[in-house]
Write a structure and sequence with these properties.
Elements (H helix, E strand, L loop, with lengths): L14 H14 L3 H12 L19 H6 L8 H18 L4 H10 L1 H6 L8 H18 L2 H5 L1 E2 L2 H8 L13 E5 L5 E5 L1
Parallel strand pairs: 1-2
Antiparallel strand pairs: 2-3
Helix pairs in contact: 1-4, 2-7, 4-5, 5-7
Length: 190
């Protein structure tokens, strides 16, 4: 994993959340860009996101996982990000730095990855999850992303973000980087 230590010009749209990602990534030695890519898939940067399976917050932590990694208030953005980052660090250590296996573990649990011989489990949701986040992570680490990003107004970004996110079982049309009026970049799905 190439460590950037920054968000490389990307933003969640909330500078406080951005700082939590950077701080937690630094403290736990997890690339903030990987955390950003995970968070984009998990909650599209919505602090009050809740899945139909009960995962909560920006990093979509299950209550048991939150407790396991020291989160006492799952809805607190700082704690949620820290818990998700600690879990990702645990998974990266468990799977010898293999980002794809760590992502599979984040989605299906580390037990599923171990059960299937330290491979991505044969669950379509998990395979799609790993594919999507890997694609985002590659996109935001690409040095040309900054140069090639289209400029959008805040209203245009809000219109794209207000659309309902698609479940993992559906085809994802496109994820791309856009330049905000202040020059920062944001991932959007359309």
């Amino acid at each position: 994993m190439n460590w950037t230590g920054t968000l490389s010009g990307f933003t969640t749209g909330d500078s406080t959340i951005d700082s939590y990602i950077l701080d937690s990534g630094r403290r736990n030695s997890v690339d903030p860009l990987l955390l950003y890519a995970i968070m984009h898939q998990e909650s599209t940067f919505k602090p009050r996101a809740m899945s139909n399976k009960g995962a909560r917050g920006l990093m979509q932590l299950m209550p048991g996982t939150a407790l396991r990694f020291g989160v006492s208030s799952i809805w607190d953005p700082r704690q949620n990000i820290e818990g998700g980052t600690r879990y990702m660090r645990f998974l990266l250590d468990m799977f010898d730095g293999d980002v794809q296996l760590a992502l599979a573990g984040y989605n299906a649990g580390e037990g599923a990855v171990m059960k299937y011989g330290y491979r991505i489990p044969p669950y379509s949701e998990t395979q799609e999850y790993v594919r999507r986040i890997s694609r985002r992570y590659d996109l935001i680490r690409d040095p040309l992303a900054f140069r090639n990003a289209n400029s959008l107004t805040r209203d245009q970004v809000a219109a794209v973000q207000s659309k309902e996110s698609k479940p993992l079982s559906m085809y994802e049309r496109s994820v791309f980087a856009v330049r905000l009026p202040d020059g920062r970049l944001e991932l959007v799905t359309q």
